[in-house]
Amino acid sequence: MSSPPNGNASGRSSQRERIIYGLQNVEDTARESLLHGGQVVTRKAKTLWTHFKDFIDNGNVVGLAVGLMLGAAFTSLVTSLVDDIISPPLGLAVGHASLDDLFVVIKDGKNASATYLTLDEAHNDGAVCIAYGRFIQMTFNFFIVAFALFAVIRVFQSFQQEEIIKSKVKCKYCRQKISKVATRCQFCTSWQDMPERNHVSSPPGPLVDAQGHMSD
């Protein structure tokens, strides 16, 4: 007499197959995700490398590096000029060794009866000060740097066909500032080199002045 089929064994086998199939699907999905992610990263890396090569080929890196080095050296030179050459005579004229020592105490520090000879002494005591001497020194720095840059640009411009500093003149009609080589005003659209063309009748419609206001 034959025995009945084992239903429990068949169920366990089917469940095991479903688990294996699910694990295979998870593995395939993970593999596809990694492959797609790798392709995206590779594509972005190639694009970034291409842009970097274009940036190098344009020569901007060399110019930027030279500009930064010259700027750092020039800043040190200007600082030394102001601190060591300009500030001592000015400070001596007002009775101080340095312009940094020109300040006004607006709130006393821990020792209210103390007399501060330098700004550092005031700060160390916790006093609140207006350091107008340092502001004067920074103002000297600014004007010296601005004038030096202007001189360098003027020298460099003498070797260039195109002007770096664009000269401007006032329009003959609306008095707005425009380029001195402009043939027509960008504000009132008047012709600068051919005034007779300004008398040509314009098409009907609202008029707009140089400030953009419409009139009837």
TrEMBL record:
One of its GO terms (cellular component) is membrane. Keywords: Cell membrane, Ion channel, Ion transport, Membrane, Transmembrane, Transmembrane helix, Transport. Residues 196-216 are annotated as: Disordered. It comes from Linnemannia exigua. This is Gated mechanosensitive channel. The chain crosses the membrane at residues 61-82, 135-156. Gene3D superfamilies: Large-conductance mechanosensitive channel, MscL, domain 1. It is found in: Membrane. It is a multi-pass membrane protein. InterPro entries: MS_channel, MSC/AndL, MscL_channel. GO terms for molecular function: mechanosensitive monoatomic ion channel activity. PANTHER family: LARGE-CONDUCTANCE MECHANOSENSITIVE CHANNEL, MECHANOSENSITIVE CHANNEL MSCL.
